[in-house]
Amino acid sequence: MNERTTRLRQKSLDARPAISPERAEILTAFYRENEGKHSAPVMRALAFHRLCERKTIHIGAGELIVGERGPAPKEVPTYPELTCHSLEDLDILDTRPKTSYAVSAACRMAYAERIIPYWRGRSLRDRIFAALSPEWHDAYAAGVFTEFMEQRAPGHTVLDDKIYGKGLLDFKADIAAAAAALDFARDPRAYDRSEQLRAMDIACDAAILFAARHAALAEQLARADSDPPRREELLHIAAVCRRVPARAPRDLYEALQYYWFCHLAVITELNGWDSFNPGHLDQHLLPFYQRGLAAGTLTREGARELLECFFIKFNNHPAPPKVGVTAAESGTYTDFANINIGGLLRDGSDGANEVSHLLLDIIDDMHLLQPSSNLQLASRTPEELLRHVLRVVRKGYGFPSLFNADAVVAEQLRQGKSLEDARAGGCSGCVETGAFGKEAFILTGYFNLPKVLELTLNDGLDPRSGRQLGPRSGTAASHATFDDLFAALRRQLQHFVDIKIAGNQLIERVYATHMPAPFLSVLIDDCVARGTDYNAGGARYNNSFIQGVGIGTISDSLSAIRELVYERTELPLADLCTALSADFAQHEPLRQRLLNKTPKYGNDDAAADRIMTRVFAAFCEAIDGRPNTKGGHYRVEMLPTTCHVYFGSLCGASADGRRAGTPLSEGISPVQGADRKGPTAVFLSAAKMDQIRTGGALLNMKFTPALLAGEEGIARLAQLVRSYFRLGGHHVQFNVVGADTLRAAKARPQEHRDLIVRVAGYSDFFCDLSEALQDEIIARTEHAAF
Amino acid sequence: MLSGLVFNIQRFSVQDGPGIRTTVFLKGCPAACPWCHNPESQSSRPEILFAEERCIGCGQCLLVCPLTEAPAKGKPGAPGTRCLGCGACVAACPSEARRLAGASLSVAEVMREVRADRIFQEESGGGVTFSGGEPFAQFPFLLALLEACRAEGMHTAIDTCGHAPREHVRAVAPFTDLFLYDLKLIDARRHRDVTGIPNAQLLANLRFLAQSGGALRLRVPVIPGVNDAAADVDALARFAASLDGVRGVDLLPFHRTGARKFARLGRAFPLADIVPPSAERLADIAARFREHGFEAAILG
After folding, report:
1. What was the pLDDT predicted at A783?
2. Which member of A52, A144, A158, A401 lies 3.0 to 4.6 Å from A436 by CB, making a disulfide possible if both were Cys?
3. Is A589 on the interface with B (CB under 8 A)?
4. What is the Cα–Cα distance from B189 to B187, expressed in whole angstroms?
5. What number is the ipTM of this complex?
6. Which of A404, A593, A726 to mutate to test the interface with B (most CBs of B within 10 A)?
7. Cβ contact (<8 Å) for B56 and A593?
8. How confident is the model at residue A762 (pLDDT cuts 50, 70, 90)?
9. Rounded distance between C-alpha atoms, residue A157 and residue A437, angstroms
10. pLDDT of residue A701
């Protein structure tokens, strides 16, 4: 980092997240004036236009890449049309010990006087909760599943290379051509399409206006600035903002600023999950980088400075404030922009280039919370790039994470995508696979697998609430064989998946009808060509995901039951259930037996791993291939964010020896501490899951620094990763930190504010994690094989 | 089928030869080095390791022990000398406070375990290492394992002190890709005093292997007060330099992790007062070997 980016970085780190009521105020005033005047897409586009026209424009001292979603860095807007925070919510956000957002008195007042009175009962959250069935609410409250779209919009999408050759004026021409081609006489949906296309056109104008306002402000600041070099910079900023996003970028500077305006537009329009994401940034930027160097208009240092300014922009944007279950399942400031490095080109050749290494140098140097980064490692990816990535991983910030690019392609081919689209895809968020620029790949909620086993063992009754949530699938005493028990489990699983999907279908339609995303739709193929919104199936591909949580916990629990109850017949299942409901009080020897004397997933043990694959197959069969409302299908993923802690808090003791209320296993990682045969055994167990059937499976590994010492350590890690990917693994990420360091950080957070650890598909400040999650990370197996 | 006594099969071993390896630890050793970091490797009988901190005091072990060896009250301690190593208490213990060191495994059973990590071994240029104890102490078993590995194309290494008849060394050499050869002291009397075995045969076997052109890497434990004096280091380095074609040496610094295992066996750790060598001392010793043309590594 140079002096400028060091200063900008520090400013970004020092800023405390706060809630800005500005967006909510502008939007509320707009809706009060215009309610009922327009079709839904046009209403949304005009509201977006109003925001771009009125919101405070910010250009910080020394900045080169400009634009903030709020009035200033880390001032986070709210989206009352989706979820209207109550005054109590605001108090919680302001005062909660972790991931808090400052709320000013003026903000509270705006909410009390103007925002809440208008949106209460009108927000999508209110409407969705009112429309969902009692069964859905019961299962949701019991912690059987969560719901991503109850306060955040469907998002979770990634841009391809389309903006680097076209300006928004070119997109407007495409929109006009699509509108001109509408056949009102023959297409019964022609009017809908025409309204949607009109909305997209307005959204393009809004984004161009937004950039022009930055140009004007830069010119104004230049006039007032007494420092000639800064004056030149501001005038250059103005020129860039007049060029992009209206017209195609000509150099690296314009390309980065263009993407950033698109990013801001997407996250201003709606608060979609996982913000937005430039995808294969190294591949997209390479032509600009090479041209600049060749023409002598760019140096590596100049490119690095621009990229560092660009990275800081991401860090200025914490996730929109989350409350309730959503805050519990995703308790982080991170908004999951996840830059892809390496990977494949459309023709299948290696996508790594010199910009890949430049990005890694920056990631290594800046170690910001956002953006996240990952390596797309194909079998043909050069070893040099992998080693470079691992040398960054060794520093212990938890990123980049590593993905199997060949598996990512295979997963997408299985979903029916074209080979070229699959190769141009990659991963976003935590571990999610998608076709960049062409897909709405929507995560819909986490699904608590161990809870379903708990319900099964209790004949469909939730012991926590005493309520009958599932069908009566048989008492513990009635299951004469393990297969009987497993059949009952399948029945419960199907029951709750059905409730979840029924709720999803309703929510998808509510978004399709009431909450179009016209700007995002401009950027995602084939929304323009189809005249259909991103939220209504306009994208070329539409996969909806349900994410399984706790596969390790449920597998070990079933393995223990199979071993003790059905194989060794040491105790009846009903007696085991009695011990579970007592949380093992007076049953410590039994708990120890469950912990230590039964086969466990993660040890390359055939019996335990077979149960894992059986549970996984049952989960897939209940979900995979079922139609969603957008012409796409439901798929499974296996990742938890922080939901394994939340889900665990609602689960009683489990048959793997886990105590009531403690975290479940995360991702497809083994139960914390259950893997005793080292990393190769963990990899072999995890690879027995047919991960190609998922849209992402998260494996977390913790290593002590000693393991990775020297080039030898890097080589070993590289070989481990390559081997796992040869076995078909989708993803692995590494925490490189000693448990002693973590314990010290927990005890004295003030001394370890900068300690970043890998949580679950993303990295976070250790001190911002809940105590339960801190303990859980400490407990994860340290693979100190040396 | 031939079987032998194995006390551990360690996957993802990365300091016992090149690449990612699976190390098979054969139980039983003719030497009795007091610094041994795997004291359970020494006896050629099965032994019980007892981890007191894991014991929940449930008394299951007392109910099943054929000798009622453990004390009648409180937490049962490490087994005494009468222990048969039958493992009944290990099976009964719910909390894994008791672990059996030494399982009788057939060649096929060992091969099943070492084969499991094949993909990692291939990717890394790794393989299988037979360690101990002293693997030559179970010569027929060792030879059968090496032959089985060779039949499957695995890279093989033996970690040995060389206490074996020449014909045994000659027999395994064709099936062994690398010898990790322990070298402790050149002074014959002190070697016998401290390890319990003479070193003439060890040195002769080492020279034989070097002359026959097999791949060799020396391993020198650095034990303060035993072999870390300048004269001892010089003697080691000079001897090593006189061997044909041997140019790699690993220094294995003394550490106290073995102490915990001594305690778990109910034995006193003989070197409790020894302080591990400093990084500077290790660097000095490595430098001495380098002066004699060696590539020297300090292992953790």
Report:
1. 43
2. A158
3. yes
4. 6
5. 0.94
6. A593
7. no
8. low
9. 7
10. 85
